[in-house]
């Protein structure tokens, strides 16, 4: 019974944080406000997550991680597979950008990731160590750097407040895809 209550409190905290973070700037959402909105003890965020950053990381993973899970499971490594992997990455971004709640989630992702808020990502989609093997021509460190740059660019473009209900135009999406593929497949150092 205690586990059910803990799981219920954890979900209430995630839902409360989501509502607050989708409408308020990250820095203006306090742990106390999240706990109050969830009807939880003021220490509940720290008990369940450890910090505000870990709470937001868990929220992003819970809401967005499943969108990429299947694609990542099917991803194969190597230069020739990069365009297909990039398409797999971009498809959920395109779908989210066409939905009002999805656009809010993308903006939250952008504020959090591009703001370099530190958290320990749990899901495989969010860990660069899992992406590096998809670029076996490069060493792990170089592959991680390229993936980080690729994700920063994608997240920045899709998390832009200027993105409207029409999402990204076809030519803009094609240019983004081409640029990311070129960056990931460019010759480089093997280290």
TrEMBL record:
SUPFAM superfamilies in UniProt: Homeodomain-like
Any Pfam family: TetR_N
Keyword DNA-binding: yes
DNA-binding region: 30-49
Domain HTH tetR-type: 7-67
GO molecular function: DNA-binding transcription factor activity; transcription cis-regulatory region binding
This protein's record includes keyword DNA-binding: yes
Record-linked PROSITE patterns: HTH_TETR_2
UniProt keyword list: DNA-binding
Domain of life: Bacteria
Record's protein name: TetR family transcriptional regulator
């Amino acid at each position: 019974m205690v586990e059910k209550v803990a799981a219920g409190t954890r979900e209430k905290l995630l839902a409360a944080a989501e509502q607050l973070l989708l409408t308020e700037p990250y820095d203006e959402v306090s742990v106390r406000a999240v706990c109050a909105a969830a009807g939880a003890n003021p220490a509940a965020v720290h008990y369940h997550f450890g910090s505000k950053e870990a709470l937001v990381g868990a929220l992003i993973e819970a809401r967005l991680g499943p969108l990429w899970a299947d694609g990542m499971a099917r991803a194969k490594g190597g230069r020739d597979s990069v365009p297909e992997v990039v398409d797999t990455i971009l498809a959920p971004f395109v779908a989210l950008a066409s939905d009002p709640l999805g656009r809010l989630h993308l903006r939250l992702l952008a504020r959090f990731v591009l703001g370099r808020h530190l958290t320990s990502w749990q899901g495989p989609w969010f860990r660069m160590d899992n992406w590096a093997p998809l670029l076996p021509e490069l060493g792990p460190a170089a592959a991680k750097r390229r993936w980080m740059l690729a994700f920063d660019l994608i997240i920045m473009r899709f998390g832009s407040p200027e993105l409207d209900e029409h999402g990204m135009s076809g030519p803009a999406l094609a240019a983004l895809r081409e640029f990311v593929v070129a960056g990931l497949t460019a010759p480089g150092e093997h280290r």
